Amino acid sequence: MSAVTVEQSDATREPGGSGPREGAFGNATHLQCRECGTAVALGPFYACPECFGPLEVAYAYPTLTREEIEAGPANIWRYKALLPVPTDIESSPNTEPGFTRLLEARNLAAELGLTKLWVKDDSTNPTNSFKDRVVACALSAARELDAKVFACPSTGNLANAVAAAGARAGIKTVVFIPSNLEQPKQVSSAIFTENLVAVDGNYDDVNKLASEIAGEEDGWAFVNVNVRPYYAEGSKTLGYEIAEQLGWRLPDQVVIPVASGSQLTKVHKAFGELIKLGLVEDKPYRIYGAQATGCSPVSVAYKAGVDAIRPVKPDTIAKSLAIGNPADGIYVLDICRETGGAVEDVTDEEVRDGIVLLARTEGIFTETAGGTTVAVLKKLVETGQLDTSLETVVINTGHGLKTLDAVSGVVGAAATIPPTYAAFKASGIA
Hints:
Elements: E1 28-33, E2 39-40, E3 55-59, H1 66-70, E4 102-104, H2 106-112, E5 117-121, H3 131-144, E6 149-153, H4 157-169, E7 172-178, H5 183-190, E8 196-199, H6 203-216, E9 220-222, H7 228-233, H8 236-245, E10 253-257, H9 262-276, E11 286-292, H10 297-304, H11 329-339, E12 342-346, H12 348-362, H13 368-382, E13 392-396, H14 405-408, H15 421-426
Parallel strand pairs: 5-13, 6-7, 6-9, 7-8, 10-11, 10-13, 11-12
Antiparallel strand pairs: 1-2, 1-3, 4-5
């Protein structure tokens, strides 16, 4: 098998700084603009110096076999050769996320009329969401760039993951969240760090503040701002794991929640890398995006057949997806269209129904993002946008204990009775 090489410009741009140590980012060679292709030296850079487009990591991959990957640890570092991390990443204190279960969802498939359905359940990560994956890669970059503070703006799950990872690594962490965030998510961050900052505003307001701080304060690594290119690569491991757990093959269809859109774009990138490396057979697959109607700028653009994303003010119980101006929204549109998928949205009532449906068919308690994804899967089937005969994977990104309020008024005791058999019989449950 030949190595996969990404061409690098002869004049790689380095906008200041002495640069990281040799091998700090593994097989990564440089950063590259997704819009104009300008190459930028590896470092704490996230915007193209030519067109201000987003930067992503480019690599020169070595020959890699399935056996080499399978011999690695049961976490995301089994794929370290495909990530912007050093070869000794396992020796650095981190939360060791990933390699979560892929469950065949026979009951849910039967309920929805699907032939073959799988749930990629990321609720079993260290802080109970997929964000542990991206944060682990961001933490590695922060270390290599000698950051003094590990920080993030967050809708909740990311704050949990950053706070926990920072505690594990022994680095100061500061996490910023909207002040109206679900209480369980606030507690799940504050337990790990004393520096939880609640901001009066929505996520886009919090993100703007974080960007301002990143520009003014030295030594701060904001995982989804100035080290975002490295952070985003962690989402690729979802795609790698799905393929490996399916026996080194790609699914026909995958349904992915959309907040910033980064997760969806990186799963697509992962599938493409596996094909190029010869680790899976090249085959067509469809990617679908899932949003809540109260914050569905990508779905609105998809349905309107336009390329521009019009920002919205979020108004939904799915707060982890409540990003009104998604950074990767236009790329989500491109991927869903080119693969033959779609972007769909569902109401808050449907989100709640999706949470209950997954719990009562498969025993998986998902948060509102997962409820959104399951509800969108159901809607895609009902509207004929998804082929029920094809093998499908739906991604559950977080645990329902984080968003208890969303369903506390929907589920509860079927009956309250005196402690007598007669009362039990009268309840009608038997």
